[in-house]
Structure formats: C-alpha cells, structure tokens
Design goal:
Blueprint lengths: L1 E6 L2 H14 L4 E7 L4 H7 L5 E3 L6 H21 L4 E4 L4 H8 L2 E5 L8 H8 L4 E5 L11 E4 L19 H4 L8 E6 L15 H12 L3 E6 L19 H7 L2 E4 L2 H10 L3 E4 L7 H8 L4 E4 L4 H12 L4 H14 L4 H19 L12
Parallel strand pairs: 1-2, 1-4, 2-3, 4-5, 5-6, 6-7, 8-9, 8-10, 10-11, 11-12
Helix pairs in contact: 1-13, 3-4
C-alpha cells in the first residue's frame, strides 16, 4: 500500500510513530510534517524521512496558508502515484483523499466544541473519524470509530513504553532527590486563538514554590524570559516521556503533557481556559483521579492543590493504583490502529474509496 501520514504536532508524531515504523516494513509510507515545536527533530531522531511544510508567520491566515501549501504538496506527491490511505489529524487529508481516490482517516481526541474549525474542515470530508470512546456522544454516524483509552495509549501503553530510570542521571539528580516538571505551551494553533494559559508571573510563582522541594525543570514551546532560562530541561525531546514518568509532579498549561503525565501515573496539574471543555481530560480527572484542572482565574486554588500534593508522602504510589484502573479500560492503540489500517487497505484494494461502503467494525 501507499500511505500518506500528515503530522501537524509532536503529539501526532507520538500517536503514529510506532505504526509508521511497522508500516514502513512492507508499504510505501510518505510522511509530511509541519514546522511545529520539536516535530522535525523527533522525526530525524527516529530516522523517518519526511517532507517539511514550513511555517510562515502566526495567526489564522498563516495557518490557512500552511494548510494550502500542505495540500499542494500532497497533490504533487499523489500525482506521481496515488495514495491508498491518508492518515493524520490535519484538515488536509480529507479533501486530498477525495481529490485523489484514497481513504482518509482523521484522528482526534479533542471535543469538537473546543476545536470547531478543525472539526468542520477535517471531519466533514473524512472517510473515517477516530476518537476516544469518551467522545462517542459526538456521533458522526457510521464513519465514527471509537476506542477505549486515549491517543497517548499509542505510545505510552506498557506494551510500547518502558520508563528508563537512567534519565535521573542525565538530569544530575541524586538518589531520592525529588524533581518536578513545569510545561508551558505557546497557544498559537488555530483553536488556541483567544485562549489563555499560565502567565509568566504565575509560572514564576510555581517554579519558586517547587524549587523549595527539589529540582525544577522547565519545558517550553516558545522562548522564555531570562529569569526562567536556568530551569530549561537539558534532555532531548525524545527523552521527555522518561522525564515525565520519573517526575514527582507536573504542572503546566498543556493538554497533551497533562494527559501524558496522567497515563504514566505522574500527578499533573493544568491551568488554562480549556479546563472543563475536553472530555478525555475530564475523564482522566473525574473517573480516574489522575489529574486536576484549573481555570486561570482559579490560580489560588491550583496553588492550594499543589501544596496538598507536595505534602502527601504516598502520592506516586496512590497514582500507580489509579493508573492500573485506567489501563484496564484502555487498548494498545498502536495495535488498534494497525488492525484498522490493515482492514481498510484490504477494502481499498477490493472496493476503492467509493461512497456507500460499510465501515469497518468499531472496537
């Protein structure tokens, strides 16, 4: 099969990286990537060839231009030889599949009300929309496929990931020394426009409080002020999951990193205006108790919760028990994706991407 994988964010790389490695053994896999955060570096570290769509400026207009360049690139690549399957999270693959005769599969774990433009532009032309089961209520009809768990289960499920304790040495930590991660995001995606996370003053307050208990490492998508530079995480992006797994606690304004910490069994606090609006994080918080979210105007409550967790000696053991319950309800998402793509590939060979054919059975 010839497969196009369109990646717009490091989280999408992690979602599909194990599937890409597996599919490349017997298929022609073409990867297109945006110039987002550390995404190109992650692909290079895994020795996965890719076509880069550069970012030119910020704002909705710049993102629209980026999507048009990605579509033009996809058309050029398909002109040489059409794609059988097109997979990813972008608004490009649905229209591209309709134009070139392939089957498109769009993955997302955000509620459509939180990413309305993404949902409108990506879901409508897609042949299939794949989401966690906690979004089953959105009901996109027969093309809506759901699974137990979260996108993070594609790369952080125990079948896929084993924490490396040697990362503590890479961070210069002594035996038993506590350490914490603070994650700050740029909030420049189209669905982030008008949203807020932690301010510099709030981030500084969190760092100062955590530094009284142990070492603090800061991970940031964009440039940070000079007073926070000494805290920047020294390890490469590929080691970040191991850092999260070993950390005593994570605080930040990132959806993805909060979910990653939670599914790894690391207590995580999140502060941004998306709190209460994303079903998968609501489930991780209220069903499994693995994280807590606060709006920016609830910062004092966040700091109170931080104090409570810092004073709780059995925090990580308690989280391990909660994580065990969550894992019992989750699939190895990479296996699930590979099975889905295999069945879609067989169907494409038999029927093509014509409308009206019944979807594969959801699991």
């Amino acid at each position: 099969m010839r497969i196009l994988v369109d990646l717009g964010h490091p989280a999408h790389f992690h979602l599909l990286k194990h599937a890409i490695v597996h599919l490349r053994r017997d298929n022609d896999v073409v990867v297109v990537a945006r110039q987002k955060d550390c995404l190109p570096d992650l692909l290079a570290q895994e020795n996965i060839p890719f076509h880069l769509v550069p970012r030119r400026g910020l704002g909705l207009a710049a993102l629209g231009g980026e999507a048009l360049r990605a579509l033009a690139l996809g058309l050029r690549l398909a002109w040489r030889k059409p794609f059988d399957l097109l997979i990813g999270n972008s608004i490009v693959i649905g229209p591209l599949a309709r134009m070139t005769g392939g089957i498109s599969v769009v993955f997302n774990e955000d509620d459509c009300r939180a990413v309305p433009l993404q949902a409108f532009l990506a879901y409508r032309p897609a042949h299939y929309v794949v989401t966690p089961r906690c979004l089953k209520f959105e009901n996109y009809g027969l093309k809506h496929l759901t699974y137990g768990g979260y996108e993070e289960m594609a790369y952080l499920h125990p079948n896929r990931f084993r924490p490396d304790p040697s990362v503590r040495g890479e961070l210069g930590l002594g035996d038993g020394e506590r350490f914490f991660v603070v994650r700050l995001v740029a909030l420049i995606a189209h669905h982030d426009i008008g949203q807020k996370g932690l301010s510099h003053a709030q981030a500084r307050q969190i760092v100062d409080r955590l530094a009284r208990e142990g070492k603090v490492f800061l991970s940031a998508e964009s440039c940070v002020d000079d007073d926070l530079r000494p805290f920047l995480l020294p390890t490469p992006a590929s080691r970040f999951p191991h850092v999260l797994a070993a950390a005593d606690l994570v605080v930040g304004d990132s959806q993805t990193v909060t979910a990653e910490a939670a599914v790894l069994g690391t207590p995580a606090l999140r502060c941004n205006t998306f709190v209460g609006r994303l079903a998968y994080l609501e489930e991780l918080e209220h069903r499994y108790g693995l994280t807590k979210g606060f709006l920016p105007n609830q910062f004092d409550a966040l700091m109170a919760q931080l104090e409570a967790w810092l004073s709780q000696p059995d925090l990580k053991p308690a989280w391990r028990a909660r994580r065990k319950k969550m894992l019992a309800d989750s699939v190895d998402l990479t296996d699930w994706i590979l099975d889905l793509l295999h069945r879609l590939g067989l169907r494409q060979e038999t029927h093509g991407a014509r409308p009206g054919w019944a979807p594969v059975a959801a699991r």
